[in-house]
## 1
Amino acid sequence: MFYAHSPLIRSACLVVTAALGVVVAGGSLAQIRDGGPTSAAVGQADRQPVLNPRHPERYVVQRGDTLWDIAAMFLRDPWYWPEIWQINPQVENPHLIYPGDILSLTYVDGRPVLQVERGASGDVERLSPRVRSEPLEEAIPTIPFESIRAFLSRPAVLDPDQLETLPYVLAHEDGMIGSAGRDVYVRGTDAAVGEVYNVVHAGDELVDPDDGTLIGYEGIYVGQGQLRRAGDPATLRLTQTTREAIVGDYLLEEEGIVPIDFVPRAPEQDVDGRIIAVLDGLDLIGQYQIIVINRGAQHGLEPGHVLRIFRPGDTVRDTVGGGGAFGEKVRLPDESAGIMMTFRTFDRISYALVMEATKEIRVLDPVRNP
């Protein structure tokens, strides 16, 4: 796949990953009607997508649009987007939507599908494919890019076993603070002069509340440095910092860019987890905040998977019931509190962005299939 790299295209392209034709969830495309879900829905595979009652028949893609916004425009539940998306066979590149392109809701054999027609060539700057090393953020992501920028290529989770072998900051030169332009001494690396490292601080423990297992540590990005003298200890020149580098911080090699060309969709299997951390140490969680959940790749989660967040029901005492029910403790049902989308997954945890927040959201709130 080629990505465009000009300012116009950077603010113009909308990345869409969809195969040619209709992507069918669960092996069949459910019939879609305006209104509420049918009573025949049994389990995730049988739930039917519902069109947004205020959906347009045609929409011209605008600069700054995201796939989530467009999906929500046509669907009550944006994660059903793959079930109505159909690429026009004449479109040269099915992965990109440009400003000026026209999305049309049509019906094929009685079922609605969404097709794309290329807009006027004057509305879009077209670029020929070329070799150029630039990060994937040059393309507009499915979700607001600015909210996840720092988590696409920087360390996010530190494995407990990994800490035993990682290079680390031993001392500062002349007792100076560890800021950009300063040197620090490091141990544990045999890399050559010129090697670039991310400097990371091991933050809070990430513990699975289900079994108390230590999953890892939050990797707090400190900055970058370049080796200017090899040896043991070696000398690392801090080239960029967002916070002070301290003794004990770890060195990691630059990670590859995390793909951002995903589409919102529900997981294919049942997922039942909990929020275990919120970035920036906040108590209350709102829209476009980043959370960590105790479910990851081993549980079938992938970037783009959407889960619903629930507020646990309170436990109350029955002060009315007769027949022996009076005084019983009753747990009220969990209530929907928001929607999250995973954008980076590890083995046992995932990072997600809160897309909607309708109630207070807190650490340890459950997350399940939407």
## 2
Amino acid sequence: MKSILLKDFIIVGSVLKSHGTSGELKLESNQKLKQKEWVMIEINQKPVPFFMEQCRELVPNEYLVKLRDYNNVEDIQKFIGRNILYYSTKAIKSKKQIDESILGYTLIDLERGELGLLQDILEMPGQLMFQTTFNFSELLIPAVNDFIDEVDHEKQVIYLKLPEGLIP
């Protein structure tokens, strides 16, 4: 079961303002938001989930969102200025700009064991790559959802499930 402690989340945006009279919010987020999903909003230093009935992107990184059961301006005023949160392992998997605080974490493949320290995060056309040194050679690992099993911030370890043939 996933944790719902604030320390396990990162801030990816904020609630900018209300929009219209039907309870819509204008959000800024560096994560892609999708309709029919949950959005986590920080309230009293705790991540609180809210279901998005409607979500549409206005411009890159700005969204109009309608939360379930919040139907007027008065209901949503308490959200203005609040942080939008993303579960840290999910954010690392999908962010275009990965939080560089994970540099220096140990990369461990669940099959092969320790691969080395995360030395850099390289932006390549179409995706991000984790850079490490393995067996005295540079190793680049795609930083994609399917390859990242878990990020343990306490132990400073990134657990990977890499496909056969990716590691020489």
## 3
Amino acid sequence: MSQRTNRIRSEIQREIALMLERGEVKDPRLSGLISISDVEVSRDLQYATVYMTVFGGEGEDPGAQDLKILNGAAGFIRSRLSRRLSMRQTPQLRFAIDGSFEYGSRMDRLLKSLNLPQTPSPEEEER
């Protein structure tokens, strides 16, 4: 990935996170704390997928409603981004749930359920 693409990814991630933090996306249906974990930008910079993690949401699938709301507000968020970023054309946004946090939690629970004997760390072996 080019240096320019990486810079654009990080700028989009930072600006969207700031918008959510400042409450610029005013929808009372947004639940919980939303974290923008990553942004993938297409090679031609026309499209960007914004990955988010929702903490403290309600219901069985807490991020589903937030995902729907943010995808509905993608045009508004894109227009705000176009004012803040110095680009000829701001990428079309698509929001997606970042499953890595849930995946990591699930792996951690599975490993703990195995009840394997603890191996001493190198510091403990020296004692």
## 4
Amino acid sequence: MALTKSPAFKYFKNFVIGVGAAVVMLGALYKIQSWEMPLGGSIDLLTIGLGVEAALFLLIGILGPEPDYYWDKLYPGLSNYNGDVQPLTSGGVSTPQLNGEVVEQQLGGMLTELQTMSKSMSSLKALQDADFSGTGEQVRQMGNFYSKLNEAMADLAATADETKAYKTNMESLNGNLNTLNAVYGNMISAMRVPKA
């Protein structure tokens, strides 16, 4: 293992960066406040801190960033976009190869599903924004309408029964009038005396 990859070097690098930044901050504070150095020294903390920081930034630029992940150990070639990634297998079970095109297709399917979900959420949002404040009053008015309609239907049914009774009475009256007309006609015929 290289020295720069060792945990002790990483700790030392972070320690020096932190101490250098603290010295720069103290130097800037002493300069801004125009304070004298403790113990009457003529050391310029700002110059020392900035020199340390310059050296650290040079070191960081030379070493380069450390990846915080180790996917390349599990999927060799993952950092190469066009590379075919062959995942490690365990127990003889293998998974399909991954490459940039396959990943883009899978992400495209996920994007379509997310767009569908977004449309559904928009519909739900529109329903949420709908004003149902007058719905209770409308339901109450519909209840009143249906009760009045039921009363009218009951009255109509009663009227139909009365109409049937009226029709029956009229038929009976008509029959009585026919009988009375026949009797009256017979009486008139009987009253006519033949002239001799």
